[in-house]
Design a protein that fits this description.
By secondary structure, the protein is an alpha/beta fold. 53% of the residues lie in helices and 13% in strands.
Length: 122
Amino acid sequence: MIVLDSSALLAMFSDEPGGDEVRVAMSLDHVICPAPNWSECAQKMLAKGRDWASAASWVRQMGLSVEPVTAVDAEWAAEFWLTHRHLSLADRLCLALAHRLGVDAWTADAAWGDGPGIHQIR
């Protein structure tokens, strides 16, 4: 199981570096995207005039599921902010979900670093 940040999904949709790794992972493993990151991805695709409906349909057919935020995730993200103020709320919620599930969070965002539980795709 893998948790994807919006930057990883966007890299795949835009054929950016690391996008191929995400595409391969989607065919081999169960992939989850937290709802806030899903919204971020949709917003960025729509802002660029891209066909979000087709992209969303394709990744869902590949098995991607969108996970809602829980109270546990929200509280973990709030506590994590105390030492990681440079990360957005969506970033911290993505990490919180990965932490709760005990899996890695995949990202293309260098600001996350490369600590435990973080998989940089580039």
